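Late entry, D-malate complex.
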Amino acid sequence: MNMMTRFLTGAATVLALSLPAHAAEYRIAVGDGAGGTQEALGKAFVAALEEKSGGNMTGKLFLNGQLGDEQDTVTAAATGTLDFSILAINNITPFSPSVGTMTLPYVILSLEDAEKLTQGDIGQQMIDQTIEDAGVRIIGWAYSGFRVLTNSKKPVSTVADLKDLVVRVPKNEIMIETYKSWGINPTPMAWGETFAALQQKVVDGQDNPYMTIYAMKFDEVQKHITNLRYIFSIEPLIVSESLFQSLSPEEQQQVLDAGKEATAFSAEFLRGEEAKIRDELVARGMDITEPAEGEKEFIELATNAVWPKFYDQIGGKDVLNNVLTSLGRDPV
Ligand code: MLT
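Prediction complete; structure with ligand written out below:
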């Protein structure tokens, strides 16, 4: 029995497998396909929500961007035409620049950093700011691992190796500037268009965590992986703030508690599954290259050029320093 089955079986036992006829069924948009961390968080959330609400609330996952591209789901949730969405943090940044601190290159250096940041005071400030800026409330987090670079052409280990590669990035200024600091102009593109663009060779490569590469079947159209660590991908579960405000205080608490439980599950899911998924991608024919000299050149170029460019957008240099010191690192 795998981790997911164990978790869901436990929840289903409590619920005795039947929901009241009046149960509210919420629509949950999921950007990625089956088998990744977004689906794992979503399933854990639905099971916990059913259990905590005594079956009065449930949710249905719509995978693979069926309810719209990730950035579009933020607008849909803000206007109340969508209930919940699970998406990468980089696709919320355009609507709430303060969460950009979590996509600045080489700030989050481990799953433990990601947990500390999202679940502590800083995470709460970002949640409050996102409600104000974007009209959506973050109630849970999927942890997906580092975004590694994939491409169809050649093994990449140095910054110079990137030359001549056309790399897709999300429509996210921080990520665009990061690739520019490495000497290439990336191609910003919506998530939903990425598989087809790789398949048709409109672009040569992209970056995303191992878990996402697997869930999106990118191994079918990509060959080489570079084990970069520039962004640790965290993927929030958001709820429409107008929907949240329409719930009773008791229901709101059930939603928040279910999000918290699903978040804890997500961290365990990543710890248990990531290495297996990486091996599976290799078994399917992908190769993995380590960046030269422990990624030194990538790190220096990106942190020196990109961090200062975004101080204003994230709310000032102090915001970054607050994050760095909370993670036990030196301020800049
Ligand atoms: C992106 O690259 O746009 C996102 O990271 C996709 C995702 O949500 O997995």
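The two ends are 47 Å apart (CA to CA). Will revisit in the morning.
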